[in-house]
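Isochorismatase family protein
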Amino acid sequence: MSHSALLIIDVQQSFQHRPFWQEDDLPAFQQAITRLIEGCRRQGVALVDVFHVSPQGPFSLASGFVQRLPFLSHQADVTLHKHVHNALTESGLDAWLREREINHLIISGIRTEQCCETTTRVANDLGYRVTFVTEATLTFPMQHPDGQIFTTEQLKRHTETVLVDRFAQLASVDEALAQLSQES
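Tokens:
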């Protein structure tokens, strides 16, 4: 039994209905997260789909968009809904993981600097060992209040900078899968 779980955070159709959605980085993300999911499944790692749910708009259950992006076809071991930026505090995920003696989380999903980073910080605070797989995360350019635009690359590098050696180990898809192989 693996003591690891892959969190697939907010990879949901809701984002396609937000004004900031763009597909510039989608092909690379799609390839990376698909490889990560397939590799984790082969190694017996639990697959956890976590979807963000809001009362209204494209993230509401009534919208019909709170479902996987169409390129994903895996069978999750559990699917949970969250209403906050991290996947652990009110979704039931923490209890689900602890019941299965899972103590290592691999982070992937949408948005790198928001729900993925926040989940990583909370997971570390709760005592989990965390591997952050940046290439299996997706985000979009953001504008600072002063007007400066931060690119997806800048946002990802910032997230890596604040997480590494404090909250998580950084890994590529290949490195994360190799690490799992060594642990089994």
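The longest strand covers residues 129-138.
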